[in-house]
Write a structure and sequence with these properties.
917 residues; Calcium-transporting ATPase, cytoplasmic transduction domain A; Calcium-transporting ATPase, transmembrane domain; Rossmann fold; ten-stranded mixed sheet; 33 helices; 47% helix; elongated
Amino acid sequence: MKKTAIISTGLKANGDIASSPWSLSLQEVADKLHVDPKLGLAMQEVTSRRRIHGPNILREIRSKSAFTILVNQFKNLIVLFLLAAGALSFAFGDYVEGIAILAVILINAVIGFLTELKGARSIEALRKLGTVSSRVRRSGTAKEIPAKALVPGDVVILEGGDIVTADLRVLTASKLQADESVLTGESVPVSKSIDPVPGDPSIADRSNMLFKGTAVTRGSGEAVVTGTGMQTELGKISELVSETPEEPTPLEKRLDRLGHKLIWVSLGIAVFVGFTGIMAGRDFILMIETAIALAVASIPEGLPIVATIAMARGVWRMAKRNALIKELAAVETLGATSVICTDKTGTLTENRMTVTALALDIDYLTVNEKPGNKKEIFQLQDGSFLDPLAHNPLLQALEISVLCNNSSLAAPGEKEGKNVGDPLEIALLSFASPFQITRQGMEEKFPEEREEAFDSDVKMMATFNRTESGYRVAVKGAPENVLMACSGLMTGQGIQELNAEKKKFWLNKNDAMAAEGLRILALAVKTVLELDAAPYEQLQFVGLVGLIDPPRQDVRQSLEECRSAGIRVIMATGDQPVTARAIGYAVGLVEDPEAPVIHGNDLKDPGELSEQEINKLLEANLFARVNPKQKLDIIALHRRNHAIVAMTGDGVNDAPALKKADIGIAMGLRGTQVAREASDMILKDDAFSSIVHAVEQGRIIFKNIRSFVMYLLSCNLSEIMVVTLASLVNAPLPLLPLQILFLNIVTDVFPALALAAGEGSSDIMSQSPRQKNEPIMNKQRWLGVTAYGLTITVSVLGAMAIAFLVFEMSEREAVTISFLTLAFAQLWHVFNMRDINTGLLDNAIIRNPFIWGALVLCSFLLLLTVFVPFLAEILKVSNPGYVGWIVILGMSVLPLLAGQAALSVLSKKAQKHNKKH
């Protein structure tokens, strides 16, 4: 009877598909999916299943609109408070004051809006991986359809170079290999078979499965769809990304907490001053205006702008060092990082295979990648070098590497990106190229007549190349399989018998090389007379080739710098434990070559861990065979341990962890679009050292933010104290409302901006990371703000008293004296922001050219208020005269002298403390 395509209505949802298709036989998988692999699904069944499962696409997440992003800029508590103050100013007819407040708000909103508009689109990037076509068999006919039209049970026909568009169970495989590095972190393609895989292995060990978003690199085969859309492994990652909430950065949290405190303080002061002034008989409208001005004065409205510009300058500096920041606040957060969780492939390593070792009959050879000349490529253990032309087994190894190969190198002068083929085979070609042993040259000398493609069952590949006397059979493959097919050992003195004892020796050599993290291939050769001779019999064993994805050259130094900065670096990779340990030791991540590695299979759900197990995980530096969910768990453990965690990665599998971490860092060169879109920072050069520079900039920025916050608060506090004390004693107001606002917008902001642009101290990377909950303003700094504010207040009130009592000036002249004394005292006060461990004339403030520029600009603007009639009338000031200027300059310098004296005392105390400890 003629077969027809099976039609079934029994498959109701993806949950009905076998939960572990890799563990089932081919017949069991076909039965579960109600499909005949030889015919595929009938169109009627396809339509039915599409109604149940929907299109084979990842879930679309609606991105933020520009309007939403703009509205978010006004949800800051300080901004809302300033909006209220501006509204009150307009209500009382103070249009100049109201416009000034709104201008500050709008400038800050525009900067934040333009920055956030470039935010990540993680799910959109993930979805792009599915926009390709697939070849399927339906109703017995092969056809090409859009990938989104696939349904569970579809039979997909695969060839090398195809993008895998759904999760598939392999039905037939002919030398089938897939590049799964974006999911697993493996550096080399994975061979696929049809055999069931028992248990619940990791993705990397499911050798009979293909996964959406990966690519077929070699061979051909057929497979049946077991998961589509969000039910694929890629879909689960997409789900993790979408479910991972975005949290405010530590800096945003600190500024928010500071804003809350300042608002309540400002409201209390404004109400108190306004009430006492009215009760003392002062003009009602004047006191309301003064109360509003004081409320505004107590809030450093320049803080959001200065903080934004400080971080924007950090972004500019980091961009020059190949680090691109997507969110401004991420700059500071990186500076607070105490743990960096990094992937291996492409981050600590170069994501390219390289031959680094050879084991031949004569010795163990180290392959120098960048020798002085080609005679120094192969180095023996005694330090001497081996010439391939003088040692036949070495020459044979080079020729076999080229003959038994299907890849090709880029032409001379072209980029490495033009290389075509398996990375492992490309490495073998590069290994032989310095000696002019090339594919083209060897093909001309020994034309290929037959090829036995790599088979996952025999784990070997062979080529038959014609010679004058017959055929030369070149073989490469898994050491244990090649050794089993060998009867002789090639040596420099000729062919020796390869008995069981010698085979055991070479197997032990293989294990020793593998323990170093090398991927091992065995090479063998023989000569036959007939083209149809068996390829894998009576071979002559040549030796072992060790390949590795080499560590990046700059990583060791970068890790040392992280260590001195108190930052822990943890490797979490999908690669094998032995490889993770070898790379970790090679780059200096661990000092013990036998350092413990936590296997992904040993990681439990965080809720099931005992305290002892948690401590073990927190102390571990190496994690291998981890999946995306486990990376999230590792990050969560460290965050619960009060660490600020940065995560680096380049693959799709890294996206959820990049988003969950306090700072996500993606590789720009080798990274997938998914990883880049999920991250906060992108490294254009993929260099781990760029992270260290970014950390340094982050620390400098936070230190600068602390300095200008302290500067702004002490200046604003002095304004509040001046008006409050004068109000309490019923003296004339030393400052008028518009004068207060002028100081806040002009003379406060420019010096603060200059502080934000500082380069920082040279020892900043030798200091420990800040604590996660450390506030911008601690108790000591609040005491400093109070002391500075009080010193400036005494100076200003003293100047006003001198104007009134000594020189008997008018009220307008005396107010001018107090206004200008306060303004210049605040300008000179910027020099009090130096670190206590720096000298009076040798510090970052003195060396900062922006400080001097700000002082000149602000001094010029202050002179304009006096000598430009229009401005003088608005601010109610007059020319203080020769005597008045002497009083202003003399009294304004007193806070600077007091501050420098205090810093000198504190510096001596700090030095004594450091000597004791």
